[in-house]
Specification:
This protein has 117 residues and is mainly alpha-helical. 68% of the residues lie in helices and 0% in strands. Helix 1 packs antiparallel against helix 2 and helix 4 (78-95) packs antiparallel against helix 5 (102-110).
Length: 117
């Protein structure tokens, strides 16, 4: 008697991973990398489904969003990265008595927040 776990990868994902592994070399570093990537992809899929299930069971939508943000933080946007780098440049410029990055900062702040690298 076999029972399937409630969080089971879809057939398409299993087939995709299997196809990639069949194309990988049989041994060596490339084979190890291919297997590691396949296992990591399957594990990430399972972890994402588990998080989805947890969020569905939370009573508050705000709590679910907070949990999702904590467990799967989004990488900083290109805008956020640029503003962080500009702050570093401003620190160096202040040490030398030169600071005039207002136009750059204003232009960066006008960018949409959802731009990712």
């Amino acid at each position: 008697m076999t029972s399937q776990h409630p969080i089971h990868p879809p057939t398409e994902l299993v087939q995709e991973l299997w196809d990639r592994l069949r194309k990988a070399p049989e041994s060596g570093a490339s084979a190890a990398i291919a297997w590691t990537e396949a296992v990591a992809r399957a594990a990430q899929w399972g972890a994402d489904r588990q998080l989805d299930e947890c969020c569905e069971r939370l009573l508050s939508v705000a709590m679910a969003e907070e949990l999702r943000a904590a467990c799967r933080p989004k990488p900083p946007s290109l805008k956020e990265q640029a503003l962080t780098q500009l702050s570093s440049v401003e620190t160096v410029l202040r040490r030398h008595g030169v600071i005039n990055t207002e136009h750059i900062r204003c232009a960066l702040e006008l960018l949409p927040d959802d731009t990712t690298p």
